[in-house]
């Protein structure tokens, strides 16, 4: 899914973790400092997360893995600004996150407007991003091309497959021109083959644009394939159980089978898999 205007941030050129960490004096794209999060009050309160600290440099593709209930989605929601930390601080480019402001978000379900066409769903996001009306059709086509859906703008969302709908959701998240993408198990509901295709395409998009990404998954294989860094959360309330760089080749044109066949790939899978199993005990 190459695009003529692939963006590369300065920090990306400095390199994500795994390809040489960003210098420590650069403000991270996302900073999570001593954060805890509780849902509810009194006797019904659930501590979902923390205390947890994490810096995510610009350009990094951070994958969050961990047992069910370890607080992965909670952490993502805090970074998106959907929740406010009970204690500690979350900042995105040094500022308190606000919903829809700093990040494009993709959920497990595509959440498209069913009465609108594919193109209209994306055009709406462009409108919210302040893109002038006259420029929107060309931008829609460009975004659709980027996610492998060129020529589908006029189709209704119910006329396309679940995998295609999730591609539209990714295009919509990219439409805002944000440099942070938050994805909460976006491929979990898809069949294995479609899931692999989307993983490959997302890896290419992320490698070529350098967009900072935080991706929640239960799949260790998905984590190693997509990430430049993996963080495993302990059983809830989640803290960092393992934090490892994934220094695999990342030009955006790697052969997926070749990547999965690398000995480093198998070693990372084993290390992260063991940490997830330990965390779940
Ligand atoms: N809105 C909510 N109100 C009350 N408790 C919540 C809420 N959302 C999450 N929790 C609780 O917070 C804890 C962490 O949930 P969270 O969904 O963040 O974990 P997770 O690691 O993403 O789980 P999963 O992998 O199952 O999706 C769990 O105990 C969950 O029950």
Automatic annotation (TrEMBL):
Residues 12-22 have a biased composition (Low complexity). Keywords: ATP-binding, Nucleotide-binding, Transport. The keyword Disulfide bond does not apply. Residues 30-260 form the ABC transporter domain. InterPro entries: AAA+_ATPase, ABC_transporter-like_ATP-bd, ABC_transporter-like_CS, ABC_transporter_ATP-bind, P-loop_NTPase. Pfam families: ABC_tran (PF00005). Gene3D superfamilies: P-loop containing nucleotide triphosphate hydrolases. One of its GO terms (molecular function) is ATP binding. Residues 1-28 are annotated as: Disordered. The keyword ATP-binding applies. Residues 1-11 have a biased composition (Basic and acidic residues). This is Taurine transport system ATP-binding protein. The lineage of its organism: Bacteria, Bacillati, Actinomycetota, Actinomycetes, Kitasatosporales.
């Amino acid at each position: 899914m190459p695009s003529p205007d692939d963006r590369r941030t300065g920090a990306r050129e400095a390199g994500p973790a795994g390809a040489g960490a960003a210098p420590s004096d650069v403000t991270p794209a996302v900073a999570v400092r001593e954060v805890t999060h509780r849902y509810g009050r009194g006797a019904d309160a659930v501590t979902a997360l923390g205390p947890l600290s994490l810096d995510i440099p610009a350009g990094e593709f951070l994958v969050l893995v961990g047992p069910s209930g370890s607080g992965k989605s909670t952490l993502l929601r805090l970074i998106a600004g959907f929740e406010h930390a009970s204690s500690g601080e979350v900042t995105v480019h040094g500022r308190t996150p606000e919903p829809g402001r700093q990040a494009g978000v993709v959920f497990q379900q595509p959440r498209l407007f069913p009465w609108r066409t594919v193109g209209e769903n994306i055009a709406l996001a462009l409108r919210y991003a302040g893109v002038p009306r006259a420029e929107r059709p060309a931008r829609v086509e460009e975004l659709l091309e980027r996610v492998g859906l060129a020529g589908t703008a006029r189709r209704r969302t119910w006329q396309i497959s679940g995998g295609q709908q999730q591609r539209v959701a990714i295009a919509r998240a990219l439409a805002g021109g944000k440099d942070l993408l938050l994805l909460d198990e976006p491929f979990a509901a898809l069949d294995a083959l479609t899931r692999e295709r989307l993983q490959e395409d997302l890896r290419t998009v992320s490698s070529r644009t350098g967009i900072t990404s935080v991706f929640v998954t239960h799949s260790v294989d998905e984590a190693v394939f997509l990430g430049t860094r993996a963080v495993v959360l302990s059983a809830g309330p989640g803290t960092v159980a393992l934090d490892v760089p994934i220094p695999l080749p990342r030009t955006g044109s790697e052969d997926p089978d070749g990547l999965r066949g690398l000995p480093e790939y198998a070693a990372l899978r084993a290390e992260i898999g063991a940490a997830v199993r330990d965390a779940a005990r």
